[in-house]
Amino acid sequence: MTRLGRFAGACLTFGCLAAVSAATLPPQPKPAATPVQKAPFGTTKEGVAVDLYTLTNHHGMVAKVMTYGATLTELHVEDASGKPVNIVLGYDRLEPYLAGTPYFGATVGRVGNRIARAEFTLDGKTYKLAANDGPNHLHGGVKGFDKVVWRAEEVKSPTGPAVKFTYRSPDGEEGYPGTLDVSVTYTLTDANELRIDYRAVADKPTPINLTNHSYFNLAGDGSGDILGHIVTIAADKMTKVDERLIPTGEIVPVKGTPWDFDTPTAIGARIKQVPGGPPVGYDHNYVLRKTDAKGLPELAARVVEPKSGRTMEVLTTEPGMQFYTGNFLDGSLKNRNGVPYTQYSAFCMETQHFPDSVHHPAFPSTILRPGSEYTSTTIYRFGHQ
Ligand code: GLA
Question: What is the value of pTM for the model shown?
Answer without folding.
Answer: 0.91
